[in-house]
Amino acid sequence: MKKTIATIRDVAAAAGVSNATVSKFVNGTQRFSPAVEARLTSVIEQLGYRSNPMAQSMITGRTKAIGLSVLDITNPHYASVVKGASRVAQDHGYTLLLVDTEETPERERHLLETLSRRVDGLIVYTRTPEAELDWLMALGRPAVYFGRPQRINLPSVASDDELGAFMVTRHLLSQGHQRVGYMGFSRSLRDRERMAGVREALAAQGLELTVFNAEAPSASAGEKLCSSIVLGRQPLDALVCFNDLLALGFMKAAQVLGFKVPDDISVVGFDNIQFGHFSCPGLTSVDLHSERMGAAAMRKLLATIDGQEAEPLTVIDAQLVLRASTAVRN
Amino acid sequence: MKKTIATIRDVAAAAGVSNATVSKFVNGTQRFSPAVEARLTSVIEQLGYRSNPMAQSMITGRTKAIGLSVLDITNPHYASVVKGASRVAQDHGYTLLLVDTEETPERERHLLETLSRRVDGLIVYTRTPEAELDWLMALGRPAVYFGRPQRINLPSVASDDELGAFMVTRHLLSQGHQRVGYMGFSRSLRDRERMAGVREALAAQGLELTVFNAEAPSASAGEKLCSSIVLGRQPLDALVCFNDLLALGFMKAAQVLGFKVPDDISVVGFDNIQFGHFSCPGLTSVDLHSERMGAAAMRKLLATIDGQEAEPLTVIDAQLVLRASTAVRN
DNA sequence: TTGAAAGCGCTAACAA
DNA sequence: TTGTTAGCGCTTTCAA
Asked: How many CB pairs below 8 A link A and B?
């Protein structure tokens, strides 16, 4: 009863045609006589034949799979990126190979090099500086990059970090905040842009920025940094955090230390992860539209694979989402 | 300068050996004379030869890839499961094919059937009742199932939902809660067990359980259900939620409605997602060790693929994590 | 220790 | 519309 899996030859034999015919039929490459069509349909049904994707890939050179690497899948921002990419991939009949690099650059390269042979294209979310990314190009696979590449020539999707930072800072200023701090994460390639946006808005008012740097883009890093900020020598009215995770951690710790947000200090983050809605106070955030970023990257990659000329850089707009962690200061 | 990718034949030719020799060398299947070894090493290095995984898979029937399907990657519980599975896979040289079924059963089957030919094994997190899962067995691939299968014969990994529910309920009772409610999500296969655990603890004290059912395992569903619970006819001391997302949503809405947690009502959830720590009050939760579940499933699958006889069911223990959403009631 | 030969399951010219 | 014929890049007997 246990029959070995049916191959194209089994089908051809059973239907009394050549396997080329079966191949063409299965792939809908051609029209057929009703007789053959009927026989093939029924035989395939009967044998439960499904073409072997490996054999197919080997010969066509296309795998119908896309490799996606992110830095940490448990960070809701990346989870959303994956969501968006996954949805588009599925809609186009592509499979997603996920790589969680866990913020480990050494892993990243090796994993991606291995992966590259098994996929039609790559989407890469990395912290590795462009200067060290030549191997990515050398892979010879279509790839989409998250960020604004200067040096490497890869189609990219970026959030409008600088504008987002500028916007939220202007908002803070309009609320009467004067002494603004930035809790950055310098290892991120986005850190610079966000800081620049904040600085720019501040500079327009002749204000200086106080900068702190977190050791990780995580809530616990935000918690750790809190005391040195709220109890430090430079009192702050407002703190712009590199991301929501840091902001959440900071707020929690601040509260433990007896500081009230936003009464004592306003806090904002980036990414607008859903959990910013459930902290208290709710977290004001710059929505970078993570899911849309993932979807846009996948669409772009698929277009490139299709031979279409995709625009080099897609910028997803940022949007300020106001919640209770910021308030008017008198 | 643009050279096409090197094949095993190129290497064989350049090194003056047969491609069988190259194959054996690359796979370390055999020992070689120093001369051959040296030549091969240098030629491979020079040509940058890497064996084509597709061709390899086609012939050996092994892909070194595992398919993992989850219900919603933006739910931190699943993100953690993926994290755990991904880590173990990477450590063993396996690649992860991720499927986000988005809670859509129709998608699930099709995606998994497609996937099954490209992977050596499958890990499936599903809501589909076992009775409708015969196709999964028919795929003929090693598979690991999340849950406690009754009917189908698949190695599985399960959390100890019933015990976890029992524990947290006993805790609530010991704090003096009497009128306990359960916000369930009946579509989940885990819902029954959690409810049973709560019921059992309550029954020991002769208490009844009030049950509500959410339309989704999400924060917004929790928000929606809130008013009918806190403003309903049956006042509650405590609410056990199917998961942390529901609990978070509920708490937020309760607060908006002017109810205080835990003063007016204690709230607990399941999964112990990290964001339960940042809500306020912090959310008491049953930690099901999501990441460990993912890792355990992957380990089990890999063992099965390796031909080892894995135990049929691995149960990951539950642990109560106390935070401020529960308090002694007088 | 090495190589020759026979495929794995499929597609892609090209003929018929 | 259908079939023939070559492989794709690799592994695997089996013989040398």
From this structure: 132
SS3 state at A315: strand
Q: How many CB atoms lie within 10 A of CB A207?
A: 15
pTM for this predicted structure: 0.96
And the tokens for A101?
Answer: 């690099």
The single residue listed with the structure tokens 């189609």 is: A155
Question: Which of A50, A140, A274 is the closest to B117 by Cβ?
Answer: A50
Cβ-based contacts (< 7 Å) between A 46-105 and strand D:
55, 58-59
pLDDT of residue A4: 76
Compute the distance between CA of residue A123 and CA of residue A128 in angstroms, rounded to an integer: 14
A168-216 confidence digits (pLDDT tens): 999 999 999 999 999 999 999 999 999 999 999 999 999 999 999 999 9
Bases on strand C under 7 Å from any protein CB: 1-5, 7-13
Cα(B225)–Cα(B257) distance, rounded to whole angstroms? 12
Q: What is the pLDDT of residues A81-120, one digit of tens each?
A: 999 999 999 999 999 999 999 988 888 999 999 999 999 9
* Closest-CA distance of chain A to residue B79, Å: 5
* Alpha-carbon span A110 to A297, nearest angstrom: 22
| Residue A259 CA, nucleotide D13 C1', distance (Å) | 76
B26 touches chain A (CB under 8 A): no
Residues in chain A: 330
Binary contact (B117, A53; C-beta < 8 A): yes
Given a contact cutoff of 8 angstroms between Cβ atoms, the answer to whether B242 and B195 are in contact is no
pLDDT higher than threshold 80 for residue B4: no
Surface of A (236-255) touching B: CB under 8 A:
248-249, 251-252, 255
Q: Do B54 and A74 touch (CB under 8 A)?
A: no
The vertex-A195 CA angle with A191 and A196, nearest 5°, equals 115
Which region, left, alpha or beta, applies to residue A313 given φ > 0 means left and ψ of -120 to 50 means alpha?
A: beta
A278 to B54: CB separation less than 8 angstroms, yes or no: no
Name the A residues in 88-117 with CB < 8 Å from any B CB: 90, 95-100, 102, 107, 111, 113-115, 117
Task: Compute CA distances A171 → A212, A328, B118, B216, B289, whole Å.
Answer: 21, 10, 51, 35, 41
Q: Which of A142-146, B251-255, B305-309 has the lowest mean pLDDT?
A: B305-309
* pLDDT tens per residue across span B155-199: 999 999 999 999 999 999 999 999 999 999 999 999 999 999 999
User: Is the CB of residue B279 less than 8 Å away from at least one CB of chain A?
Assistant: yes
CB neighbours of residue B197 within 10 Å:
25
pLDDT tens-place string over residues A268-313? 999 999 999 999 899 999 999 999 999 999 999 999 999 998 899 9
Domains and CATH numbers, chain B: 8-60 (1.10.260.40), 65-158+290-311 (3.40.50.2300), 161-288 (3.40.50.2300)
Percent of chain B past pLDDT 90, that is, above it, reads: 93
For the cut 60, the answer to whether the pLDDT of residue A2 exceeds it is no
Q: Give me the residue label for tokens 């095993």.
A: B8
User: Can you tell me whether residue B170 is helix, strand or coil?
Assistant: helix
Beta bridge pairs of residue B320: B286
